[in-house]
Each structure stands twice: as C-alpha cells, then as structure tokens.
Amino acid sequence: MTLAALGGRWTPLVVREFLRRGQTTYSELSAALPAPSDRPTQLTSAGVIERHRTPCRPPRVRYILTSQGRALEPVARSMWERRTARRDALDQTPDP
Question: Residue 13 CB: number of other CB atoms within 10 A?
Fold first, then answer.
C-alpha cells in the first residue's frame, strides 16, 4: 500500500513538499516542483492528503496532509537518504 501511495515519477517529491509544509495550494506546489500534475488527486485518493475548498469567490482549494500522510515521513526520509547516499557514492567514483 505504501508503494502504491508513493508510486509515480514525481510523487515522492510531492509528498516531501507536503511533509515540509503540512498544507499547500496547487499553485504553491507547482512553483516548488516542475511537474506535480495529477499528484494531488492521486494522493487524495490514497488518503495521504485532504482537499479543502473555501467558499469564497473565487473558490480556493488547499491540500492538507493527513495523519496517514504524516506516517509516510520515515519512508520518504529513508528514500531521500538512500538517493543522497547513492549520488554521493557515484560522485566519489573515479572516472576510468
């Protein structure tokens, strides 16, 4: 289930942004990442974030991290640390 929630090319980065911010709008997410596209919808369906619409004009939508989403923090952190360690190891490999 965790892999299903974090599956997709940009999803781990979107989850990381939510873990950093706690809540955000689609516009803020688009400014922070190159391609969030349908990830908020996917993460809402997975129960990772909730969609809250304000009744003002124009309507505003804010996405908020759920408790299930916060529970993904150790997994996301582990993925990020693994990626960083791998990148550092490749950077230290001498060229042939």
Answer: 19
pTM of the model: 0.69
Alpha-carbon 29 to chain mean position: 9
Residues 63-77: pLDDT tens digits? Answer: 999 998 888 888 888
The two beta strands, 49-54 and 23-24, are unpaired
- Write the CA distances from 49 to 5, 77, 89, integer angstroms: 11, 18, 34
The region, left, alpha or beta by phi > 0 then psi within -120 to 50, assigned to residue 6 is: alpha
Rounded Cα gap, residues 80 and 60, in angstroms: 31
